[in-house]
Design goal:
Layout lengths: L17 H4 L16 H9 L1 H15 L3 E7 L5 H20 L6 E8 L5 H18 L7 E7 L12 E7 L33 H25 E13 L10 H17 L5 H5 L10 H11 L2 E10 L10 H21 L4 H18 L5 E9 L1
Parallel strand pairs: 1-2, 1-4, 2-3, 4-5
Antiparallel strand pairs: 5-7, 6-7
Helix pairs in contact: 3-4, 4-5, 6-9, 7-11, 10-11
């Protein structure tokens, strides 16, 4: 999918070039995604039985000599290869159980071009060593490669995949919905970075329309790359019902909006800068997901489960600070591009305090979906 157009110099940016800017914070520093992605790891572990069960069912039904596996939105850090290891071991167990030769595994790791792929590649020797150690020196034939580009469009050749995995990526849109701006390039959602209680109806409509376009394109693209009978396991953030305003994923964005507003009131951020910033995120409902799968028509919906991740907090660690670091690791690239790096520390200090204040009153419960799709 072509990158979003950049605004003319001197004008407020109508859209940020998401494909070439957005990425999780790389490296292994304090604010890196590698150090602040335990929530995503916990979610993957919660639905691990769905992921491994689906690949085993696929293998037993088809017993291919070579299996194509894609992790779309693989990001960087330890989570990427942990999931691949789980999938490899699930296939191995199945092949042993039916006394079938181990297939070769082709693994395609995908994310946007700015992703820290190097950290994954550096971890590969240890990944292979661990596999060999656990198999007493033996190891299945695994070929791992990185594929940079937006998954909102074709990435790989026809019929080369048997299994697609995507965790916490599909709630990110390909771009900020253009309908959030009027003909003069001014936001219709002033003072907010996402759908809010005071947003006009056109805001949620713009976000929903962009989700429909993106998810449809994702499904169409994967339908070309997957063999008939291939499976997809998709994990993404969502919402319980039709109302966008809830005490779930919406509320974390609401608190970030308030953190920005505080910086505006303190003179650290220009109001027009805030007015021209929107996040490229959408938390769909169960009905919206089901409807898009039905409309696109290439996949059967085998499973759609909603689950809730309990508070991720280490002993003695401040919860608000932990959440702030996790959100910063995800949003830092976009915020820095628009506002500059100097506001990051004060923004997320404010955010962490607000999270603590709100969770002391009532829990904020982020909802997720685990979806299993089968290529028809």
């Amino acid at each position: 999918m072509p990158p979003s157009p950049k605004a003319d110099k001197g004008k407020l940016p109508m859209q940020m070039d998401v494909e070439n800017v957005f990425h999780m914070t790389g490296g292994i520093g304090v604010t890196s995604y590698a150090k602040n992605s335990s929530l995503q790891k916990k979610a993957s572990d919660m639905v691990k039985h769905i992921t491994t069960g689906t690949i085993q069912e696929l293998f037993l039904a088809t017993t291919p000599k070579s299996i194509g596996i894609a992790d779309l939105g693989c990001s960087s850090g330890p989570n990427s290869l942990t999931t691949i290891k789980d999938i490899v071991e699930a296939v191995e167990r199945s092949s042993i159980n039916i006394l079938h030769p181990l297939p070769e595994l082709r693994v395609y790791l995908n994310d946007l071009p700015t992703n820290d792929f190097n950290s994954i590649f550096k971890a590969l020797p240890e990944f292979y060593r661990e596999l060999r150690k656990e198999k007493n020196g033996g190891c299945p034939s695994i070929f791992i490669g990185g594929y940079a580009g937006s998954f909102y469009g074709r990435l790989l050749p026809n019929n080369c995949l048997h299994f697609v995995y995507s965790s916490y990526s599909l709630h990110w849109l390909s771009r900020v919905p253009p309908a959030l701006y009027d003909e003069q390039g001014r936001s219709i959602n002033k003072g907010h970075i996402y759908i809010s209680r005071s947003s006009p109806p056109q805001v949620s409509q713009a976000y929903y329309k962009q989700f429909q376009e993106d998810f449809n394109l994702f499904l169409r693209s994967r339908s070309e790359e997957l063999v008939v009978g291939g499976r997809m396991v998709l994990i993404l953030l969502g919402r319980r019902g039709q109302d966008h305003v809830d005490r779930g994923n919406f509320f974390f964005w609401e608190l970030l909006s308030r953190s920005f507003s505080k910086l505006v009131s303190q003179g650290e951020v220009e109001e027009e800068k805030l007015d021209s910033y929107e996040v490229h995120f959408y938390a769909p409902s169960k009905n919206e997901i089901e409807e898009e799968v039905r409309k696109e028509g290439s996949f059967g919906l085998d499973r759609l489960e909603m689950f809730e991740i309990e508070r991720d907090q280490k002993d003695g660690e401040n919860y608000g600070k932990a959440v702030a670091r996790a959100v910063r690791a995800i949003q830092e690239s976009m915020i820095s591009q628009h506002f500059g790096e100097r506001i990051l520390d004060s923004l997320f200090d404010n955010y962490g305090r607000m999270v603590d204040e709100e969770t002391a009153k009532e829990e904020i419960k982020a909802m997720s979906f685990a979806i299993v799709l089968r290529k028809l």
